[in-house]
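User: Please look over both lines:
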Amino acid sequence: MFVGLLTLEIRLPGCDTLKEKRHRLKGVIERARSKFNVSVSEVGTQDAHQDALVGISMVNMERLIIEQVFARVEEFFANGDGLLVNLSNIEWF
């Protein structure tokens, strides 16, 4: 069994308030959860208007499947609502 954790540093250009940031980020997070069947949460930089740290986790018997899903999730975030993915990292447990 493999547990993967994908961490994305995201930039949200044009967000002037935390309310706007959370609104934009919440929509993308909810769509990612339902589309890819992964766990997603904002895990850092909650008080920054234009930055977010998002954690995505998945459990599967095949590491390759997790890697493929994570690649699609990262692309989904990069194409979602004007977000910019600055950095991504995968950890295995």
